[in-house]
Structure formats: structure tokens, C-alpha cells
Amino acid sequence: MTKQTKILDEVTIRFAGDSGDGMQLTGSQFTNTTALLGNDLSTLPDYPAEIRAPAGTVYGVSGFQIHFGSKEISTPGDTCDVLVAMNPAALKVNLRSLRNGGIIVANKDGFNDKNLKLAGYDKSPLDDGSLERFQVHAVDITKLTTLAIQDLGLSTKHIERSKNIFALGIMYWMYSRPMESTINWIKEKFQKTPEIVEANIRVLKAGYAFGETTEIFLARYEVEPADLQPGRYRSITGNEAVAWGLLAASVKSGLDLFLGSYPITPASEILHELSHHKNFRVKTFQAEDEIAGIASAIGASYGGAIGVTTTSGPGLALKTEAMGLAVMLELPLVIVDVQRGGPSTGLPTKTEQADLFQAVHGRNSEAPIPVLAACTPAGCFDMAYEAVRIATKYMTPVILLTDGYIANGAEPWVIPKVESLPNIPVHFRTEATDFQPYSRDEKTLARPWAIPGTPGLEHRIGGLEKEHITGNISYDPENHEFMVKLRQEKVDRIADDIPIAQVDGDENGDLLVVGWGGTYGAIRTAVESKRKKGKSVSHLHLKYVNPFQKNVGEILKNFKQILVPELNLGQLAQLLQAKYLVPVIQLNKVQGLPFRAVEIENKIDEILK
Amino acid sequence: MIKHVDKYAAKNFQTDQDVRWCPGCGDYSILAQVQRVLPELNIPKHNFVFISGIGCSSRFPYYMDTYGFHGIHGRAAAIASGLKVARPDLSIWVATGDGDGMSIGGNHFIHICRRNIDVKILLFNNQIYGLTKGQYSPTSEFGKITKSSPQGVPDHPFNPLLLALGAEASFVARGLDREPKLLQQIIRRAAEHKGTAFLEVYQNCNVFNDGAFVKFTEKETKDDNVVILEHSKPMVFGKEKDKGIKLEGFTPVVVSLKDGKHSVNDLIVHNEKDTMLSFILARMSNFPELPRPVGVVYAVERPRYEDVVTQQINDSIQKQGEGDLEKLLNHGETWKIG
Ligand code: SF4
Q1: Could you give the 3-state DSSP secondary structure of residue B229?
Q2: How many domains does the structure of chain A reveal?
Q3: What does DSSP say about strands A509-516 and A503-504: parallel, antiparallel, or unpaired?
Q4: How much is the ipTM here?
Q5: pTM of the predicted structure, to 2 decimals
Q6: Which of A186, A188, A285, A382 has the most B C-beta neighbours within 10 Å, making it the best mutation to test the interface with B?
Q7: A385 touches A248 (CB < 8 A)
Q8: Given an 8 Å threshold on Cβ–Cβ distance, is B82 in contact with A281?
Q9: Which residue in A174, A333, B10, B88 is a FRET match for B216, CA 20 to 30 A apart?
């Protein structure tokens, strides 16, 4: 039977099932295959908050979304075109992200009475007509999986566990993807158990064949390769990229990397990742609490390592006093805050951008700290690297903000050439003549980094106010004011040492959409789509939030109106208004979810109508 | 140019800063004893680091002509941990007090002990808050009248030795500010110990808690109230060396060596490596009728955190080779476009 093949320029698929159903694995296999085909893509996993939620419940649903296309893809997708639902709970939780007319592939066997009840359905939604707006394909996935491998003598548990691979096979057929990459992966992954290899390959092929031969599916689709920058690619998540950016900076600067960190969602993966790379001489210290995380990192920086601490919002709050100490000591330090929903414990597994004020202002007294923000998963690499460069050059703590959305999200990344990474020159003071711990570099205002073990440089530092140059304790009123201004000046001068801001789109016009951090993809998609329709709208995305890049004020003046979408109640909006005295229109969302591009598009329409 | 000093004297460790403790404060003696011991350790001066938190005791680094780090309240042990792990070559000392180390910094204190990071911790225990002018501390005795406890302290105090032992510190000792020779000996032992060394020093705060330890320091009373611990020696004390400590079950009791019923053979023989005994000795300070043990209570060797970390790094390099960034970025699944 020949089926019709349609060409699409983008597709979003969401795999959803019980946490035990292997949805993350299914999603990442689909992603790898799709990347190899040369599509641009963006992915987002969606884990349940509970570690071992009861099977079949809505709390236990685990999802993985992939958005891929032949055009530029900047977000994991607003709504999905296909929902693969392994049980009723997965359907219930994810239905609202499926577009009208979208495809549902449901594992019919998973819709038994017990599971329906657990998900809170009285009747099966597959039969009661409630899914009329969608194209529903109910497939006996469990049964078909069992049929394919029952002669291999595997336990029911093993058979059950392979059903996600059947679903993957269907999707490979539906989107015309080759199975090789997954087959190779299965062979490698289960090489010790040939019967599992055999089973998984058979199930994958059975799923594919099912799509091809049965009459349920009338159409299949193709998505052509995207026009991507040539190079060698890999997929990378934001947390991995932070870890690797730090490692790269350690290699390039010649400084040992020390991470003092206390486990916290959604930042822990950075600690995990770095703890696996001890051959880079990185030392990971799993501290007793958040405060010890940063305090140990400060101790390591004092000793001549690059001290790093990683955390999320509540942890950043605990580190506040020590950040002030680092400001006073003028030692390099990198603090990574992977933002999550708050306040307090808030929504640990959900994303938000509401720690901007905390990062910029959240310390006692005048304690300026440069604040950087990564915009995309892969962009975390560059910003982590940049954080180390600034911290060591200016002898200052630096805060890097990322968020749960880009930390867990993944995208293809052109692997940089190591030799093309900028140098990070570091100088330890060794000359004892005329040594003064708080003397300064004329240009950067950085003080010397004089590490213990250096003969003749014995000196004392601490949290008490310092006398200019000597670093001796000083209660002198004029000296204090002078030092407060000097520390501010040092951070302000960083603006001279960072690339100027670039506008996406025209340099002037009716509307400028200004964002920062993880909203990049959604804003970019929205602005691009409106520009294609002839609207006079441009996009400015800030990676430096303290200090702002030098030309930001100029850029703002070139537009009639300014829109600032943020996942908070308007923190960047307030900073921009305070600094540049320009009126801005806010678009705020605090649902623990990223923006959908369409939400920003609607706001643009409303403003430019 | 500072000349390299091969042989140091105490004065090489003194800074030009005016010492700002109250006249008569026990801190002066501790400073002097440390400055006396350091020159004997054969460690270059530039390899010493003194780290402190906040409190009277925490001014200590300013008076030591070594590297010094006056941190924030309670965090000295955490700062020192990071420094020692990053730089195992340094000799790192923490100066802390009963408020700084046992109250706000209690968590870091127990964790450095359990990890056995090679940091020497000098706890200046004056059983009061000095710098904030006289509130009770976590080691102040129950019922004590202080500025913040007009009707008496309602909390039960910490026993610092027990806390350290409970956290499985590998070296636990007690000294007295007024016994300089003995204090020097203990400081030397702490310095030589491989691992976290915890030294509680009874320190008189003559302004806010004067005389807290007189019983153990005054000529007339000290011999009958202090038992000096010496490894492998029976626990004899008293002006006339006529008293001893014997165990009845797990309970230490004082016996007379003159009453004809007991001899030195009945007494506990001190063993620094005996874990059970260390708890019994530490616990003795909860009983006023018993003499106070002073000296090295416990000293054993176990792996140091920083050595394990170094070992893991060496193992990883052995197995995976020296870190190669190009290889890391390109490992696993990659694909080429164009
Ligand atoms: S207040 Fe007490 S502890 Fe502090 S310096 Fe004065 S005497 Fe010493």
C-alpha cells in the first residue's frame, strides 16, 4: 500500500508516559536520529516532581518534547503536533499542549480500568468522543510488543519495558527517520545481554512496520534538513554546557577548577558532570550546606584556584553574606544560579526568571557584582567561560544566571575549536618589593592575586573595610566612601570590556522587544514571525545585566516603543526604566512555564495594531 | 625584598598591628604560645595560613605575620576546607570561639571533623560572647546569669570535646591559657597530627566572664581539679600526686592512693587511641566533682579528605589520561553538517 507523504518545515512531538515507561530515552533517541538527519531542533524534558510517584497517576507522568524542522528552531515548541501517550494520565496531563487537529498515538492497552481511574477518567477518552478535535490512533502497543518478542523467553517485566521502543518505531516511520542510529545504540547499550538487543531491535522494527502496513495511518511526513552552519555538532543541555564552559576556562587559564556545591534542583547536574571529569584536576566538594559551598569556593580562590559554586534561588539567598565577603576580599569567584520557581521552595522543577533582583541587588550594603545571563542551552558554555574571564581579570565574584528551562533543555551545538577560545591570562603576584594587597591595576582596578605559599607576600585580608592600597583595617569615613565607590567603579568598567549589544532586525523602528536569559528562543521566534509579516519590530537580548552593555541606552532610544517580556513581574523592566528613564511595556508570566512564542506574538500585535 | 628566613623566632610571626584584646585577656597567652611553637615546625612562614570567623578570637590572624584571612561569622572551617582541598601544601589553622565555632559555625565544625581535612582548629572557649558584650554562648553553663539571660541560661551547653568526638574528629585535645608550657606541647601535637586537629583552650574573658576557669588555673586549686593526660600513663593527679581516676563499669571515679585500698595499678591508663575512653574522658567535664582532663584526649590516624581527593584525581588521570578538552567536547554522539 502506498501512502501519501507530506513535506513539513517543522514538527513538535511530545512523548509522554509513566516515569517508568522510558519516555526520556525514547525522546533522546528520536532527537539523536533527527540531529543526524541535519534538522535544527530543540528539546525539553518534563520530569515529574516526585521521585517515585505511584505508577499511572498524573503526578508520575514524564514527558519529552522535541521540536525539529528544516528552518531555524529556537524553542522546544509552543504546542505539539503529535502526542504519544502511553497511559490515560499522560494523555490527561499533556492534552492541553496538543494543537487542534493534532495527532494522538495512544497505547490502548494502557487505558485499562485501573489506569483510567488513577487518572480520574470515568470513561475512556479514547471512546467517548471527547477527543474529536484530534486525530486519534489507539494502538495495542503492549500487545503488539509482546507478540513481537514472546518467543525470546523474556519476563513480562522486560517485555513491558520495551513498549516505548515500539512507539519510537511508529514515530520513525511517521516522520521518515532511519532506524540505524537507534539500532547501533541498542547494540552497544545492551551488549552484555544479546537477548535484550534482539528484543529491542525486533520491537523497533515491529513499530516501524506497523506504521507502514496497517491502515490506521494514512499519511507520513518528511522534514528536510535545515540550513545549518557547517561544522561538527553535538547535542548539549544548559547544565552540561555550564560544566564544560567552566572546564574549558580552567584549561585555558591554567587554573585548577574548584566547585563547592550543595545539591539542589535544578542545578545538581553541574555538580554531577564536573565530578566525572577529575582527570581535568577539577575538585568537586559536595559541601554540608549552601554556605559551605560558597565559603569553600572562596577559600579555594584565595589559594589560587578558580572557585565556583552552583545553586538555585533559595541557595543563592543562603550565599548572600559570603557573596558580600567575596566583594570585599576582591577575589575571583563564579556563582551559578539556575533559577526555578519561587519564592521559598516554590516550584523546584519549574522555570522562572525572578532571581534577577536578587542577583543584582540582593546583598547588604553596596556590594556590586557583575551579573551575566545565558540565553540558550548551548549559550551556557560561552557565558560560563565569560564569567571566569571577568572574575579573574577583575578580581571579582561574578553571578551567572541560567534557568531550569535552558538547564534541562538541549539543542545542537557547533563544537568550538579549543584554539579559537579566547585566552584567559592570569597573573599571580610574586614580586615582594612594594607589595600592597589593595593596590590596583590602573585600567581594570583589579587588586593583585597574591596566593598563600608565595614568599614575602604574607598579608591579611578579611571582611572588615580596607584601607585603600594597604588593605589594613580602616574605620575612616572618607576611606569607606572612597572604597565603596571604587568597588562600584571597578564593576562599571567591565562595560568597556564586553562586546556591544546587537539588535536582531532593524536598528530602529516601531517596537523593540527586549529580553534577557532563557526567553531568547520564544522572543526570537515571535519577532521573526512578525517581521516576516512586515511588522516593524526588532529584538534585543541581553546577556549582560550588570553592568549593561554600553550601547543599550542608545538602542532603546531608536524605537518608538519597548516591550519587555519576562518570567517575573517586571524586574528587567524596572532596571531598564531606572537606568535609562524610558517607558517600557511589560509582558509578564509566572506560571513556572516558559513563554510560548504565540503569547509574545499576540502582545506584539496588540501593541502594533 | 624580604630575606628568606631559615630559622625563625617567635618574633618573626608577630605583625606590626596593635593587639586590640582587653588587657589581661586569655587570648594573649594563646597567641604567644602559637608564635612560640610555629618556628619549631620547619615549615616556611609563607606556607602558614590563619583563618578566622567573627568574635574576639577571630582577630587572631591580624596578629600573625603569616597569610591571614578574617572571614565571616562561623564560616572559617568551611573557608579553610576549600583552601586545604585546593592547596594541600599549606599549613592551615583556624582560630575560632565558642560562639563562632559551636553556634553559628557548628555545622561546618562537625563536617570538617568527619571529613578529616588537615586543618588545625583552635577553639578559644571563654563560655561567653565577648565581642557583642556579654550574652551567653552555647558553652555557657546552665542557669548562668548574663546580659541576655537575667533569669539564668535556659539551654543546656555543648561539650566541645564530645561534639568533636561525636563528629569523629581524629585529634581532640584540651589546653589552658594559663598553662603555657602544656599549651605549647599540645599545639605542637596538633600541628604534627595528620588530619583535623581540634584543640579546645579554656580562655579567660576577664571582662565578661572573669574567673570561669579559676579552679583549673589557680595555684591553690588546680592540682586537685585538673588531671593531665599522658599517653600510657596512669591517671594520677592532686597536689601530692595522691589521687587517681579509676573506672567502675563505664563510670570514672576518684580514688585516694593513700587510703590503702587503691594503688596506681587500679587507675585508668591513658590511651589516646581508645575511642571508648575518649568519650568517657570528654564526658568528665559534665561532672563538677571530677577533675578536668587536660592534654591530648584522642589521636588516631585515618585517611584525610584531601589525600583521597588527590588520589581520585590521580586515578582518573591514570585511567582516562590527562584531561583533553578537544576530546571531551567531541566525545560521544556527534555529527557533521556541510
Ligand atoms: S571581651 Fe573578653 S574575650 Fe574579648 S578581648 Fe576582652 S577579655 Fe578577651
Answers
A1: coil
A2: 3
A3: unpaired
A4: 0.97
A5: 0.95
A6: A285
A7: yes
A8: no
A9: B10
